[in-house]
Amino acid sequence: MKQFYPIGQAGTPWSENEKETWLAQTEIKRSYNDLVIIKIDALRDRFQVEQYGALSINSERYPLFGVRNKNWHEDKPVVLITGGVHGYEASGVQGALKFLDTQAEAYSTEFNFIVTPCISPWGYETINRWNPFTVDPNRSFHPDSPSEECAQVMAYVHNHSQNILAHIDLHETTDTDESEFRPALAARNGEDYIAGNIPDGFYLVGDISNPTAEFQTAVINEVRKITHIAPADEDGKLIGEKVVQEGVINVPVKKAHLCAGFTNAEFNTTTEVYPDSDNVTDEECNDAQVAAILGALEYLKNCR
């Protein structure tokens, strides 16, 4: 097997030594405090801001926050919005914060909101998919999770509600998925790296056991006002999965232990913004995440 990644030996899974080498090469590239915590603090007069935990690698630098509407009533349906499961996917974090700042109050007469804007703050600062221990949080939402990011947010959400109507998990698919993160994954596992394709545009990942096609369509139609929807490739697929409707693939989210599957929400979806397009700005990517949430909420309003 040809060597394709600078850490480890091709065909051999990483030991703790390789994982420590990987961690030693990471560096802080942006500020969680300046770009996230300050924005969360600015919401305190309008929302309930709660610290639900912290990361053990540096508990003072990486506190974990959830945000809920102040006019919380048990008889209203609960909508969960999660961002920053993969810390490097910036628009998920900033989109969740922008939704809180600009739209959440208008919808809080009808819905309760639980919003966790940045589940993986170390990953946000170092622009990484993994946590410091080479664990992918978005494959780790299950009991006895090896990811403290997952364990702490699951406990927080379940503490506030066992009955989630909808869960919208905000993500990106970036060019670095192929240039860095998927090669690193293959190297860590001692597998060969097989190159894939990055979809050119926005798409959704639905739940194969709960596809909610009309709900997904409502989200896509709102997002297309902001950015282009990813077309299927020549095989009718996106990231190797069959396109079941425009801009939508379905996967077994619970079996894969994805964030969007850790509740029993009646409606769930994972957004995938494409920030590396020449046709979008960072702010438009944030707006696309907000649009996805609004498309979901308008659908939920009209179907109840």
TrEMBL record:
<dbReference type="InterPro" id="IPR000834">
    <property type="entry name" value="Peptidase_M14"/>
</dbReference>
<dbReference type="Pfam" id="PF24827">
    <property type="entry name" value="AstE_AspA_cat"/>
</dbReference>
<keyword id="KW-0479">Metal-binding</keyword>
<protein>
    <submittedName>
        <fullName>Peptidase</fullName>
    </submittedName>
</protein>
<dbReference type="InterPro" id="IPR055438">
    <property type="entry name" value="AstE_AspA_cat"/>
</dbReference>
<dbReference type="GO" id="GO:0004181">
    <property type="term" value="F:metallocarboxypeptidase activity"/>
</dbReference>
<keyword id="KW-0378">Hydrolase</keyword>
<dbReference type="GO" id="GO:0008270">
    <property type="term" value="F:zinc ion binding"/>
</dbReference>
<dbReference type="GO" id="GO:0016788">
    <property type="term" value="F:hydrolase activity, acting on ester bonds"/>
</dbReference>
<feature type="domain" description="Peptidase M14">
    <location>
        <begin position="28"/>
        <end position="297"/>
    </location>
</feature>
<dbReference type="GO" id="GO:0006508">
    <property type="term" value="P:proteolysis"/>
</dbReference>
<keyword id="KW-0862">Zinc</keyword>
<comment type="similarity">
    <text>Belongs to the peptidase M14 family.</text>
</comment>
